[in-house]
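Today's session is about reading a structure prediction critically. Students often jump straight to the picture, but the first step is always the sequence itself: look for stretches that repeat, for charged clusters, for runs of hydrophobic residues. Only then move on to the predicted structure, which in these notes is written as discrete structure tokens rather than atom positions. Here is the chain we will use throughout the hour.
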Amino acid sequence: MRRSDREITDLFEIQQILDKTKTLHLGLFDEGYPYIVPLHYGYELKDGSLTFYMHGAREGHKLDLIRSNPNVCVELDCDIELISGGEVPCNYGSTYSSVIARGKAELVTDEAEKIHGLNLLMKHQTGHTFEFDSRMAASVAVIKVTADSYTAKARKK
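Below is the predicted structure for this chain, in token form.
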């Protein structure tokens, strides 16, 4: 990381970013071009290991891309606010907090794990716990991203 003065290594601070952010950007390989999709998510951060869960339609382009190449990148950001540079345009900037993770995506097929992922997603997005049954779990695809590595960074005021 070029700006090590902005690097965040404390897991509590990283979790605060993950809790505050509601949308992640999932980067996939689409032949010679990146393909980036914004998605709602839930996550687990246990003993330094980071796992994301997302959901969507049971078929489509992103699922095809995951099947052809499961290597993905996840980007999340929050706390974005303009820092004025006054009359000097090069002095402008912004505050931010972000997490970037690289890992493997997979389509979850186990019903219990799908329900677990959906519960994490809904708890993260709404703050509430819901009951999911087999029919609900079967109606969507659940994507799991297990991070091989991740970094966090922030620029505060």
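Discussion point for the tutorial: The two ends are 20 Å apart (CA to CA).
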